[in-house]
Amino acid sequence: MDSVLETQCKIAIVGAGSIGCYIGGCLTSTKVDVTFIGRQRMQQQLQSHGLMLTDWRGRQEYLAPERLNYSLELSALANADFILVTVKSGDTEAIAQDIAQHAKSSAVIVSLQNGVTNGDVLRQHLPMFTVLSGMVPFNVLTKGDGKLHCGTEGNIALEDPNNSASELIAALDSARLSVDIYNDIRNIQWTKLLLNLNNAINALSGIPLLEELSDRAYRRILAQAISEALIVFKGAGIEPVKSGKVRPKIIPLVLSLPAWLYKIVASSMLKIDPTARSSMYEDFILGRQTEIDYLNGAIVDLAKVHHQASLVNAAITQLVKKNAGKTGSPCLSSLALEKEIKKLTR
C-alpha cells in the first residue's frame, strides 16, 4: 500500500457502472485518489448508501458516501493521470471525443471493456494519448443500494509493452486486483470473447450463472456457440490462448460432459459463486441496449469476412436484439432456447 500512496497518481473511471465502480471502489479502499464518472442512477445509489464490495473469496469492504467522488461531468477527467474506460462498447467513439476535450495530454487511457476493438477505436480518435488495451475476466453484479458483488475469479489483463502503467498496476495490486502484463493482448481478448459468448445465454435464461451452467441443455448451446467461434478463429488465423486454468480448445468437450463429471472438471477450472450473473442480464433488467454486436455479433462479423457461417451465434444475436430494451429477461428455459435457435438456424 505504501508504494501506492507515494505515487499519489490520480485515477478517473469513466462509465462507472458495475465493473467501474467495483474496480474504483477497491482502489479507493487503499486511499488511491479515484474519481468516478457515470450516470445519475449510480451516483444516487452511492450518495445514499456508499459502496459495499464483496467477492467470491470473502472480500467485504464498505466505503461511506463521503469517501466517494462521483461526478456526472466529463470535465472531472481534467486532472487524471490514468483514465479507465468502462463504457459500453457502442459508446467508445463518443467517449474518446470527450476524453480528447477534457483530459490532459499526459494521461494514460486504459480500455477495460468487453470486445476486441475498443482499444483500436480509442487509439484512432486519441492519437496524441498513450492508449492501453485491457481485459477484465471477472463478473460483477449490481445488487442495488450500492452493493457490488464479484462472483467469478480471474486476473485483469493489461497490454503495457512500454511500462506506461506501472503506477496503476501497483495501485491495483495493493487493492487486491491482480494484473497480468502482456506485450500484445489481442489473442487474450479473443479468448475472453469465447467465454463471454455465455453472457447472452445467461441473460436469455434469467437465472444465475451457476444454475444455468448446471443445465446440460444450456451448456450444449454454449458448446455449439464456442465450437463455431473456434472454427472461425482458425479460418482467421487467431490462436486462442490459455486463460488461467481454462484451455479454450477443450471448452466444448467439457461443456458436453454429463452433469456429475462436468461439475468436477469445471469447478477445478473456474470459480463461480451461486449469485453471479452476466452483465447482459443486468442490461435486460435495466432495459438498456446490450453489447451483443461486440460479443456473439463479433463472431458473426468475423465469419462473414472469412466467408464462413456462424449460425448459432447469429441466432443468439438475433434473440438478444429481439428481447433487449423490454426491462427484463425473457426467462427462456434451456429447451425453449434450443427450440428458438433451431427455428432461426434452419
Q: What does this protein structure show overall?
A:
The chain is of the alpha/beta class. The relative contact order is 0.12. It contains 16 helices and twelve strands. α6 (166-174) links the parallel β11 (156-159) and β12 (179-182). α8 crosses α15 and α15 (311-323) crosses α16. Strands 5-2-1-6-7-8-11-12 form an eight-stranded mixed beta sheet, with helices on both faces.
Helix-and-strand structural type: alpha/beta
Number of helices: 16
Strand fraction equals 15-25%
Q: What is the approximate shape?
A: globular
Helix content: 40-55%
The SSE string, one letter per element, is HEHEHEEEEHEHEEEEHEHHHHHHHHHH
Any idea what the radius of gyration is? Answer: 20 Å
Which secondary structure elements does this structure contain, and how are they paired or packed?
Layout: H1 2-7, E1 10-14, H2 18-29, E2 33-37, H3 40-49, E3 51-55, E4 60-63, E5 69-71, E6 82-85, H4 92-102, E7 108-111, H5 118-125, E8 130-135, E9 140-144, E10 147-150, E11 156-159, H6 166-174, E12 179-182, H7 186-196, H8 198-205, H9 209-213, H10 216-236, H11 251-255, H12 259-269, H13 279-286, H14 296-305, H15 311-323, H16 334-344
Parallel strand pairs: 1-2, 1-6, 2-5, 3-10, 6-7, 7-8, 11-12
Antiparallel strand pairs: 3-4, 8-11, 9-10
